[in-house]
Design goal:
Structural class: alpha/beta
Low-confidence stretches: 207-211
Number of strands: 13
Helix content: 25-40%
Number of helices: 9
Strand order of the largest sheet: 5-4-1-8-9-10-11-12-13
Mean pLDDT: 92
Distance between the termini: 47 Å
Order of helices and strands: EEEHEHEEEHEHHEHEHEEEHH
Length: about 325
């Protein structure tokens, strides 16, 4: 397959209406584009790579807004418009300084109708990397089938497959997620998970945590080894403020989080993944991939919005060059 685009991702992008306080108290709402896949697409595009996003939107202003925002970031959009269903919407509530809650209005949305045909058309562009998240598989039976088909086709055609578990408890149960994601993990070259998600891609009975808590160090190593034995090349574990690690056949690598003032953690995991995949595209080794992922995550948590504060390539060294409250003149 020819390499026509650096990264392809697909899934549901929504309009996010964000509040600065409890929704029940009312107040103004800020309008944003939200979606794990489009967050990654923006992050990778800002770092200078060619990116395509595929998805379905409704024939409504919300869908038009999503297309306009993605195109403004230089992302090639491969979309289908559903004339009957609406674009998904979510409300994001900053309930306290440390707690953000999401409320989805996406059941039966246009984005949930993503099909195998949509995926086929996008994959025909010949991406170097296909990035998937478990969120897509949770949307509907049709989207789940498209998700599985994409992973299988891309792997068979030599496309590097990146899979981020990205578990969402408001969309499906852990048992439902495990039943879908664990078998498909074998198609991933790079598997990304938070430390409380690893059990969702483990083989039956291997490292499962019944309560979805953070995986212990020994359990993490056990699950990672099992995934490597199944053909995964890199098992990337995100730990938020505690940094991240990667397990490979040649060893284990770790990085600390970049110290910044955190104001908005939503989208930080997607930013990390965007940085990691950008370094893959640049030919960086695992430590370089971790370093760029950590920098991108730091930009995400220290700026407002899922992706709005992500840096361009010329800004990657900005955090290292400044101290808290500094002004670059």
């Amino acid at each position: 397959m020819s390499s026509g685009v650096d990264l392809l991702t697909f899934g549901e992008s929504m309009v996010s209406l964000r509040s600065a306080g409890p929704l029940s108290a009312g107040g103004s709402l800020a309008m944003h584009v939200a979606g794990a896949e489009s967050n990654v697409a923006v992050g990778v595009a800002r770092l200078g790579h060619s990116v395509s996003w595929a998805g379905v939107i409704g024939a409504d202003p919300h869908g038009e807004y999503i297309l306009r925002q993605l195109r403004s970031e230089g992302i090639h959009v491969r979309h289908r418009v559903d004339a009957v269903r609406s674009t998904g919407v979510m409300f994001l509530e900053q309930r306290t300084a440390d707690l953000t809650r999401a409320f989805y209005y996406r059941t039966g949305s246009a984005g949930s109708t993503l099909s195998r045909d949509d995926v086929d058309l996008a994959l025909n562009a010949g991406p170097r990397i296909l990035h998937l998240t478990g969120i897509t598989a949770a949307l509907s039976a049709a989207a789940r089938a498209a998700f599985g088909y994409a992973a299988e086709r891309a792997a068979a055609e030599g496309v590097l497959v990146s899979l981020d578990v990205n578990y969402r408890s408001r969309l499906w149960t852990r048992d439902e997620a495990r039943a879908v994601l664990a078998p498909l993990a074998r198609h991933a070259d790079i598997l990304v998970a938070s430390d409380d998600e690893l059990d969702l891609v483990a083989a039956a009975g291997r490292g499962a945590h019944p309560f979805g808590g953070a995986t212990s160090d020994d359990a993490e190593a056990t699950v990672a080894l099992e995934l490597l034995d199944r053909g995964v090349s890199e098992v990337v574990v995100k730990r938020g403020a505690h940094g991240a690690g990667v397990h490979t056949a040649t060893g284990r690598f770790e990085t600390a989080a970049v110290a910044v003032t955190s104001i908005d953690t939503v989208g930080a995991g997607d930013a990390f993944t965007a940085g990691y995949l950008s370094a893959v595209l640049d030919g960086g080794d695992v430590p370089a991939r971790l370093e760029r992922g950590a920098v991108m995550g730091a930009f995400a948590v220290s700026t407002a919005g899922d992706w709005e504060g992500l840096p361009g390539r010329d800004e990657l060294d900005l955090l290292a060059a400044t101290q808290s409250g500094a002004t670059v003149r």
